[in-house]
Design brief:
Order of helices and strands of chain B: HEHEHEHEHEHHHEHEEHHHH
Oligomer: heterodimer
Number of strands of chain B: 8
Shape of chain A: elongated
Strand content of chain A: 15-25%
Largest interface: A-B, 59 and 63 residues
Distance between the termini of chain B: 67 Å
Helix content of chain A: 40-55%
Radius of gyration of chain A: 30 Å
Radius of gyration of chain B: 22 Å
Distance between the termini of chain A: 48 Å
Helix content of chain B: 40-55%
Amino acid sequence: MNPSSRIVSIVGIGMVFIVVVFPTVMALYSFSGGAIEGAVHSVASLPIVLRTIAWAVGIAIMATVIGWPTGIRIASLQANSRFAIYALLVVTLVIPAYAIFYVWWQVWPSGSALHGFVVTNGLLGIATKVCLALALTAWSWPIPALLSAAYSRSDNSLSVLSKLDGSSRLNRWAVRVRSDSKGILLALFLVAAFIAANTTCFDLAQVVTIGNELRSVVASGGSALSSPMLSFVGVLIAVLAAFATIRIVPSKHTVTRIQDSSPVPVITLWLLVSGLPLIIAIAVTGGALTELWKLYNGDIWLSVAIASTVAAFAVVLILTSTLMHLSNNSTTRATASVLDFIWIVAAFLPSSIVSSALATAWHSTGFDFVYRTPAILVIAHFIKVGFVASLAGRWVATCKNTRTLCAVDGLSSPWLLLLASLRRIIIASVLVVGIAFAVSLGEIALTNQLSPPSTNQPIAVALLNAMHYQRPQIVTSALFVIIAVACLCGFLVLAVNKKYASVLILAVFVSCTSQEQEPIASAMLIGGVGQSDGRFTTPRAIATNDEIIIVIDKSGRLQRFKHDGTFLSTWDLHLSGTGFPTGVSIDDSGLIWIADTHQQRILVLDQNGTEVNAFGEYGTGDGQFLYPTDVAFGDDGEVYVSEYGGNDRISVFTRAGEFRYSFGHFGSGDEDFLRPQSIAISPSTGNLFISDAGNHRIVERTKRGAVVQIIGTAGRGQGQLLYPYGIVFDSPTTFLVAEFGNNRLQRFTVDGEALETYGGAGDVVGLFKTPWAVETGQGGIIVADTGNNRLQRLPDMMVY
Amino acid sequence: MVSPKIASSWVSCFVLVGCFGNVENQKELTVYVSADEQIAREVFAAFTKKTGTVISWVGDTEASKTTALVQRLLRERERPVADVFWSSEILGTIRLAREGVLVPCASKFSQSWSLEHRDKDFQWFAFSPRARVIAYDPRKTEKESLPKTWWEYGDAAMADPRFGTTRTHVSVMALFPEQFTAFLESIHSKPFLGGNAATLQKVVDGTAMFAMTDSDDVHAAIARGESVAMYDPSHHGDIGGGTLFIPYTVAVVRGCTRPEIAEEFVDFMLSDEVAALLAASPSHNIPLQQSVASQFPELLVKDPLQIDFYAAAALQEIAIKKLMESQFNESQ
């Protein structure tokens, strides 16, 4: 493990140790010594457990019944509408559940006609519980909706087939539920865990559950062990939720967009269930904000300071989690998963267990500088949001292409890995900062139990007392602040929509290395995502001659197209294993040379797809390969093959496949390569221009391997490169580079002068997502827009 | 050798904690308070204005009230954080005194405080009590028809007896064993509510005829415009058998770092100024000082209950246990 990796692991493990493990160990040690002397009176535990489970499961079912189908609908929306809905759902989740309950509760205040009717008919108890159920459902349905939207895109193939078969709606839904069963199960688990851990909502509604009963036990001198059944069930629910989150991976359905749906039904649902009471609450606060500020401005500033610190730590956790999950070291990755698990368990534990553990740990051990200061609240709030940051880091690290690069680079360049994942990190950070801020501001249960002495108290203290003492003006004013923060969070989510990503990047990082985000005008698409003819699944290798375009994708197919994009034929390459070719070239006789990457060979086919030659085998010796990536042809019959995976060299063969010589080796020196991905031969000199992807440069070498020049350095500016993959000469004096890491094309002169960059990150026509290859074709440049599962033809770029 | 990156990270952490950390300050006092937070802020502001001492405080919540703060003081007794404990009830304070968490206050003013309203060893001082009352809706119930004694209110909405003034009242009730037993038998199965404010809300909502609560909660509800009034039943028919007064108490914590300022604060709390402030506040605490009481004649209560709080403190665990058991058995 290299030093950088070690530091990252220490930071990640250190955070969990300080925040979770240390208090837990100290608390267990303390609990084993018995509670403070004095009887602890607990009500019967079993009814409380059953009641808690009933509420948790009931709300989970209701939320999932509403949220899951809504999520499917959301998945069918256009990207901009989808992001707007995501923002609305995030706003709802970030607002504390008790706020939604309180607002619903105030809809029928004492003295109103509805309240009178309820009381007259002896329905107040039931009505309060209905109100509570509505509020908890209104808060939690975005969870299954977001999960469903993330893992479903429009109708999945099974549903499409059912519809085509003329199945009834009921049957189609049954098929859908079966195929989505994993995701639905995860949604149920998560919602149930959140509801079971809730204290304040049930407190306000006077419903005794595990959370508030444990609080009573601890407050009256007991410990978690004084009510072992309640504590055990509370911990069990947290552990089960963590297992479900880590282990249940819903099946992801590929996009087969049938139609672009309207967002109106989703927005209407949100308004009815969650939005309208909040909007009314905001509207009626009016001048009470002045009173709130006058009374509690110090409290608000203190709360903002605590929330800001929590948010800052959350960002640090995102970065450490990302790097640990991206590590080449399997132990580090396993440790990262364990840390994720711990964060999730900690977040779902009953707050009384957490608060008593923290108080015991930081006071009894003499760390008064934590116990007596708001630092303890920072730790407590961080426990509640840590899992979001940890899982956000996990999400950032799941970017397949970054993972591929990790396999090449290792963690010797964590800065570059973070740079390569920058967009996802920004999205995750924005979201997590917003969530951390809002959760910290609105967190009541832990805050009230741990609040240290101060001239000001966190606003949550005043909020809880105001709710109990029936001071609605204070409550709604404080809720206004929390809702406003939640809306800001939603706005930020909207802002990191792909369309605005560049603006945010520029705003956050004032730097001259900004990325060009202007779509290339007149770009045209060839194909789209899919496995049928003419469609692609991660197309990575392309080759062209005057007649055809050849594409090899990760479904193991070689497809042929005309230059106008007309599909011609598909050949299944019948390759074994999990990897597929990443390079293909066509020689001047029309033979197709495939760098069969994971079969460690070069495969030569004729125009009918018949194998005419194959050479190479696994190894590091002459004529052997580890992972060949590209094939290029010299003007005197040489065949140049690039490879990575440890050999990282260029090997030279005859057309018959006889090994001649090789040059280059693994490394970052002038003579070295780190994943030479593609080769282009200069039309004028015959020299090799090699995209040295891991070293973020283009290297010009003579046929015998002498270094002529090194072009580019790592970065995002013009003249800089980030994982250059594809390279092609588009004129005798210029060449184009497809940059996987910068999601763009860049044109250079043969002397190494950077002329222009094209495109940028995005999925609209004219933008790219991790492009692997670029070729010239009749009527335009052809780009393998890999992450968008398509090719793009750029006619206007043939200007040289 | 520690790398610069790690060292700077730790420095940043300490700076961060330092920004939040309490700096030792002679003119600062730490108070744990279970009185209403808005009233407490007013009192603290008055003390700061008078003496220049800044008060850092920790409050309670309506749900767990004084009990949670008492437990916190007990946990911290080896290294106390608080200098002063200002409680909204008395039994918890008595327990703290018994457990050695408090220290005698030697200030001149407190030395002259009436024995009836203080610990015999000057470990705590009672002041500005509230009355324990029954809240009812005068639109629905005539005052004359109300039951006259506490023992007839088994149906009244009640807060969780493990906390706050309900705990105090139940413990006092246990000093009358026959009546208390009959009271337990008359309690019908009902959920204990989250605090006195919640019990009063039941009356406001119309789901309960009566609620056992404190006078300050009723005053607050009246101020909000609710249709509610208070009635003070008696505990027994003899002289001194009337309304239970539950006083605030103030005490200095043993081992506190600022004992002089703590004693100064105790004197302030026992002053006419605070008594008048509390009497005039929304909670309308009853002043014990004659000089102040004469300014608030509407708050005077005839025939308050004469009670030995030490005896009640000794019975509280048994009383709570019996009440919880009767509730549990009733619900089976």
